[in-house]
Amino acid sequence: MNRQKLLENLRCIPDFPIPGVQFRDVTTLFKNPECLRIMRDEIVDLYKDKGITKIVGIESRGFVMSSAVALELGAGIVLCRKPGKLPAKTIQQSYKKEYGEDTIEIHADSITEDDVVLIHDDLLATGGSMRAAYDLVKKFNPKKVYINFIIELVNEGLDGRKRFDNDTDVTALLQL
Question: Would residue 81 show up in a list of annotated catalytic residues for this protein?
Answer without folding.
Answer: no
